[in-house]
Amino acid sequence: MKIRAIALNTFSSLLRNKIIILFCAGCICILLLMLTPLLILRKQSGTQNAEMMQMAVLPLIGSMMTFISGFGSLLAAWSASDAVASEMRSGTVLALLARPVRRWEFLLGKFLGVQLMMFVFVLIMLGLNYLLAWIGGATIQTNPWVLIVYPMVRYMVYSSLGILLVTVMHPIVAFCIVLVTMIGAGLVAPGNPQTFMPEWLRTGLFYIFPSSNLLSETRFLTITRATLRAALWTDHATALAYGLDYALVCFLLAAWIFHSRSLSRD
Amino acid sequence: MAAVIEFQHVTKVYKRIFSEEKLAALSDVSFEMEPGQVCAFLGPNGAGKTTSISMLMGFFFPTSGQIRVFGKPPGDLAAKEQIGFLPENFAFHKFLTAPKLLRFHLQLAGRNPDSAGTLISDLLNKVKLNGYENLKIGKYSRGMVQRIGIAQALLCDPNLIVLDEPTSGLDPAGRREVLQLLTQLKAEGKTIFLSSHILPEVEQIADHVIIINRGKMVRSGSLRDLLASGGQVEIVADRVPDELRHSTLSGAIVEPVQQGVRFLVEAARKREAVEALWAAGCDVIAMTPQRNTLEELFLKEVDTPGGAK
To answer: What is the rounded radius of gyration, in angstroms, for the C-alpha atoms of chain A?
Structure first.
């Protein structure tokens, strides 16, 4: 009950967080701008060849999905670090932990509150996927659970990383590190053509960074034929276990650090 | 009877990361607090009061020494279940209303908030916040925030109430109400540990006083003993011969009153003074020990150069 109470309180708090609202408003504005050419093309498709229209539209949808996906990871990291940091900053953590609540329960409540918000985000994104596919005249053939579970696990990775970093540093610094980590993970991902990094470094960083390419739901979006592929259950299990393991390690480290740190109004 | 709070040679040193600089916030502080006592924890700003309270609540860890609360280490869940805590400059989730905040804290205490409607309503009545149930805490005045803080501290009927500056931000009427509330809690047998700068108010309810200055404990004891000790005695006699004024009573403040003459002597010299008066054939009409006020005692202790370093 304690963890659930903290999680729901965190969720309510995040929905009122001005920075998050600002982030989301910016994201919606960009999406709307990107949707405009899509809608214009759809309007023109009545008079032109539908197949030609699809060829123009689908790359646009792909880039929009990549943008939303990346934004989600950053949102997860920021929300998680701010959820903990704002309690420290305002001093509400003192009243909260004066109750019979363990420190790891507090962190877990925060983590779950962030996951609740990200779940809402994923559902909205799923709806958007279907909407974009409909606009593009395509159908998504993937089972919806993949489009829910994969991003959720990826967000767990980034939010637990955010919580870990914010236990020892300012949330803005933590967020910047997560951002750099995300970019780094993209650079060292297999298939990336970059050549400035020696192979040993690239391999090492690949294992250290949250290499969440595996957890990208865009792998399973069947809105383009190129990305259509059938995944075995072992693929799913490996990818999800990797993500959950990474998130668990980050969370346990955060709980360990938080357990022994002094709590005061920052 | 087991002590509710025990500090044994507690020292807290703050260290800067990547620096040799150290700051001793608390040095070798030891005291005990018995059940049912109201203990005033006093000290000037920066004396180490909030550090002590933070360690008591398990937010900070002592560099050395030991703290026990209800016989358990600070932060222990069984101990925290018996504590109601009001931090200094209390902050809340501003989007909550008072009943929602109290429900949230009930859940944190592991209790069912659904059956707590009467409890919450009674508490809000107690702190005079009834009628504001639908107002978000973000719109509360400083005094209202302090009062909801006190309400949450009293929420689970705690045995020990720890209050860090409970009257901070309150107007005189609000301070009086808090004082009345604390008096009521004292009558109910609650153990109260409070820090405050409003010494005349503390003096009205405290049984025990601990004064710290620059991280060191400079005085500790029952309020009655502390206020009586080191004071003066007022003696009223029918007359005082001039030779006594210049010998035994030299240095004493002598002034005429209706019954004769009144003068103040150091408590340690009262017997000598009275015997000298009797020997001179004077009649001693009254002898009254003069009490210090807590404020006088406090200022004396924190201003004494040798009191604490």
So the answer is: 20
